[in-house]
Amino acid sequence: MIQFLLLGVISGALLFIRDDFIELQKNTTLRETIVSMVVAGAIVGAGLGGWMNDRFGRRPSLIIADVLFLAGAAVMAFAPSPAVIIVGRVFVGLGVGMASMTAPLYISEVSPARIRGALVSTNGLLITGGQFMAYLINLAFTKVPGTWRWMLGIAGFPALLQFVLMLTLPESPRWLYRQGRKEETAAILRKIYPANEVEEEIESLRKLVEDEMVLEGSIGEQSVFGKLKKAFGSKVVRRGLMAGVIVQVAQQFVGINTVMYYSPTIVQLAGFASNDTAMALSLITSGLNAIGSIVSMFFVDRVGRRRLMLLSLVGIVVWLAVLGSTFLRAAHNAPPVSDVETRPFANQTCPEYDPNVHWSCMDCLRAASTCGFCAHEGNTLLPGACVAMNNETRGVCHADHRELYSEGCPNKYGWLALLALAAYIVSYSPGMGTVPWIVNSEIYPLRFRGLCGGIAAVANWVSNLIVTQTFLTLTKALGSAATFLLFCGVSFMALIVVFLTVPETKGLQFKEVEKMLGSKNYRPWKRYHPEAPTKGRESGLAML
């Protein structure tokens, strides 16, 4: 939860950071960098997290992540320039990367198999809850002097609380058993399982770990490169890693973090000018994301991981198509720029504006200079003025009770765009929002789980970085409509690839997942039935 609170809070803070630093007004690359540097830090953090999980354990990794969260929040709150904000974002990113792949792994290893999926989904709920809380924090400080500093700094307090709570929690019993700390393992398992199941679970864990240690040997397993070599030499690991990486990349390339990081900006692109309005409406999308995580908790162990992801992707494709089409329609109906409306601004008009050339609001916003559209008083759909963006013109425009648009143009399709955006979130959250993390917590052999989880998490964050660092640039170069239609096409490709490469892991023990991935007749699109020990039947496959 904490990492995504620190991630989500930037979405609203960015609007006020943009207003405070004039160099950010037109420089979309610098704004993207402020947002995406947390993702760049997360890439390094995820890689380190995989190694630290195997070397030091799950619990110390989470504690170190909390320390990084606190440091990053403090640096951002007192930052005198965008460059220092970026440094703070890197600190937060390191913690986010470590926590993002450690938390679901830790939860899965201390959870009984029958409720493992639901508990990992609970982590997903807390993640979306953190995003929702971030929007609440943004709204709470919109009228406070220093707006964005409070938004970014206050997010450090939940990290402090988590740090204190983690000191009271135990280590993963599976990790402890691999370190030979069997008495500690048994003590923890007695707190997790009913008394009549403890001995059975200890025996199962003993067999699993001992079998893995026999397979590992002692050579080539002490270094990361040695583990990588042995991991890629295993058919089970290769198949599992392919599925794990694909779902993590697909999770990002469907464009979700354009919504999470830039939601208020997207609302402004849809035709809502006010910062306060943009953040209030963004709260709805964040709330729907949290509700979707609750839905996932109820259905992931019933419907299955694979089916839930495929249904989610179908909805994502449909609603991204609707969203892109709505933006396209809105752009074609943007109100014109009027010389009569622009003339009163005298020398504060947009430098590129020529009254002898027909311009619409969209032309005004695309000008090389930093220009905005001051809408008509009383009816924003009527012709307005194209002005240079600065504090003076902003004050004059607002003094006349007019709205100043800097991201998108006023239009009558804004509410339809918001409905499509909400439907997109509802489609994404229960499936692609939480299930990829569940799959990655279940699909790797224990001996390579930390390493493979780190690789998959790095793939997730690299994909996140690509999307985050290019979104605003794409909207400026291609337009909002083409950008969302591009994400629609990518999501359709993801639907096909996930169908062909990702197996169902619902209800399977870790060892059964290994058997499935190692099966000669392995087909990801077919349901695996584990071997029935009492009858000695061979495992079979049935179509989903």
From TrEMBL:
GO terms for cellular component: plasma membrane. The chain crosses the membrane at residues 34-51, 63-80, 86-107, 119-141, 147-169, 240-260, 280-301, 308-328, 413-439, 451-472, 478-502. Its main location: membrane. It holds the Pfam family Sugar_tr. The keyword Transmembrane applies. GO terms for molecular function: transmembrane transporter activity. Belongs to the major facilitator superfamily. Sugar transporter (TC 2.A.1.1) family. This is Major facilitator superfamily (MFS) profile domain-containing protein.
